[in-house]
Amino acid sequence: MLEIPDVFKGLLILICVFVPIEKIWSMHKQNLWRDGTITDLCYYFAGFFIGKGTTQLLIIVALLSQGSMPILTSFTSQQPLILQVPVAIFIGDLSFYILHRLMHTVPWLWKFHVIHHSSEQIDWLSTVRVHPFEQILTKACQMIPLYWLGFSTQALAIYAIFSSAIAFFIHANIQIKIPIIKWIIATPEFHRWHHASSPELSNKNLAVQLPIIDYLFGTFHLSSEKSPSKYGSKLKTKTSYFKHLSYPFIEILKI
Question: For 108-136, how does the pLDDT look when each residue is reduced to its tens digit (9 = 90+)?
């Protein structure tokens, strides 16, 4: 019996989960096959293999540096899983927040990150529109501290699954409000303001898992309005994956 490759299995699972809920609870009326779908599918397939390769490389780096902080790693790994997981989530999202804020303030980093903000229609598939350089840098910033701190394999696995699932969830085109949970875990209601075309709003809600990090750093934003009036950035190469790949390097050379 022919086995379906993991890259297609993942896509099928995402389609089966998010297409129905976006149809039932949609925030914005938009077609399943929208402007930029082909581009985002290219990002999905390329990102799947880039992600696997990056993970393997980071594991090697972690193994080579293993034992550099023996007391701390021993203490961390001996903690119960129920404690390790939330701490790992906090450290991972704090690391992401710092990098994310730099991407919005450092001009040459913004050249890469602006690609993610080029989507004018936000849904679960727009999650994957991330330049390979940013994908690798982000994963390294999130995972290396967790490896060095000695979190167990089980905690890292749970964190990886949670991180991936919530990334698709917060980009989903759904109109759903969870009164208490939304203050604890990032939701579409929270994250869609970060994708607003207004520069002032795109610098808000930089955390992608824990809104409390934005509270702490003064970048939290929620509005009584249901959603931003417009999404996207000034980047106009939204329908071409290969133009996206070269765009940051061309723009950096102009600086």
Answer: 999 999 999 999 999 999 999 999 999 99
170 with 195: CB under 8 angstroms?
no
Q: Which residues pair with 196 in a beta bridge?
A: 231
Q: Name the nearest CA neighbour of 18 among 163, 172, 208.
A: 172
pLDDT band for position 2 (cuts 50, 70, 90): low
249-95-124 Cα angle (round to 5):
70
What does the angle CA 164 – CA 169 – CA 171 come to, to the nearest 5 degrees? 105
Mean pLDDT: which of 67-71, 123-127, 224-228 is highest?
123-127
Locate 34 and state its tokens: 């929208």
Please, are residues 95 and 142 in contact by the beta-carbon 8 Å criterion?
yes
Contact between 124 and 172 (Cβ < 8 Å): yes
> What letters, b where the CB count within 10 A reaches 16 and e where it falls short, cover 138-167?
bbbbbbeebbbbbbbeebbebbbebbeebb
CB 117 within 8 A of CB 129: no
In sequence order, the 6+-apart residues with CB closer than 8 A to the CB of 89 are 159, 162, 163, 209, 210
